[in-house]
Amino acid sequence: MSQLPLNAAEDLINANEEWAQSIIRDNPDFFKDSAAYPQTPKVLWIGCSDSRVPAAVVTASMPGDIFAHTNIANQFHSFDDNANSVLSYGVDPVGVEHVVLVGHSGCGGVIAAIEAAAAGPVEPHNPLTRWLNPLIRLVRTLDLRGLPEDEAVAKVVEANIFRQVDNICNSEPIVTAWAAGNNVFVHGWVYDLATGRIRELVVRSLPSVCS
Q1: What is the pLDDT along the chain (211 residues), one digit of tens a residue?
Q2: Using CB atoms within 10 A as the burial measure, which of 45, 67, 78, 174 is most buried?
Q3: Residues tagged active-site
Q4: 77 has binding-site annotation
Q5: Closest to 90 (Cα-Cα) out of 131, 43, 51, 25
Q6: 48 annotated as belonging to a binding site for a ligand
Q7: 169 annotated ligand-binding residue
Q8: Which CATH number fits domain 39-204: 3.10.180.10, 3.40.1050.10, 3.40.50.300, 2.60.40.10?
């Protein structure tokens, strides 16, 4: 049987081998040390699943630097046990000091929510529309009339970041941490795909009160 050509998954395995060897050349004990001790990242990144915004790559971070959770359109829903469990575990026992909620320009989830909001009432008939339903409702509260598409998307991206920061601040893990005097900072960042730069929109901390 002839050898099948490499596919994208196999390319990743080969790239991983090269990457691991390059790390070992610079620091022979890096992986042994990483495996031997508990993780102690200071940052929890809650971002979008978009492949163009990999947390470790865009921040030049190494394994162990960032505790991460991603989903479509960087949402933080009160009903989402997945996100809440990541936040809870990140705050205690991992001990992160900064939670960063990261949106980005040209977000496909935001564009889908804008289109759904314009189309009228949405019946959440599949996982994506159910997931985006809170964002669709947020879009309907914003005045996007007359805005070019890119400006409308940018406005919703930023409004979404502020909303998700509020949701994180009002979550049980953060409320509990702040009540105990644990000053975890909650940040709202936006990443620009066209420039590769991160900009901070908001930061909240004890004793800030989130709406």
Answers
A1: 445 556 999 999 999 999 999 999 999 999 999 999 999 999 999 999 999 999 999 999 999 999 999 999 999 999 999 999 999 999 999 999 999 999 999 999 999 999 999 988 767 778 999 999 999 999 999 999 999 999 999 999 999 999 999 999 999 999 999 999 999 999 999 999 999 999 999 999 987 555 4
A2: 45
A3: 48, 50, 52, 104, 107
A4: no
A5: 43
A6: yes
A7: no
A8: 3.40.1050.10
